[in-house]
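[Meeting: bench + compute handoff]

Bench side (C.D.) handed over the final construct sequence. Compute side (W.E.) agreed to return the predicted structure before the next meeting so the bench team could plan truncations. Sequence as handed over:
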Amino acid sequence: MKTRAIEMDGRKGEGIEIDLPGAPIVLARGPKGFVMCGYLDLRTADKVNAPAALVRGVKTVDDLLAAPVVAVSAAATEMGVKPGMTGYEALEFFL
């Protein structure tokens, strides 16, 4: 597992990469929510009322931050996160 700090305008988050057979789990989290790869389930985020944004086809935190958001949880929608934003733009809402 690899972790790294992500800082935006003095606010801090964390990027996480977990190598697994087939594909890695990749996510970036802040205190208010997270951006996740397609390995994780958006329905579960909705079930637990977690603000989450989903991107697909990423292998690294850098890929995740550059990729377009394809879906968001209801809680993230309420915060203003929308499909089409980059993972970076979505993460800004979660910091």
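W.E. noted at the follow-up: The chain has four helices and six strands. C.D. will use this when planning the next construct.
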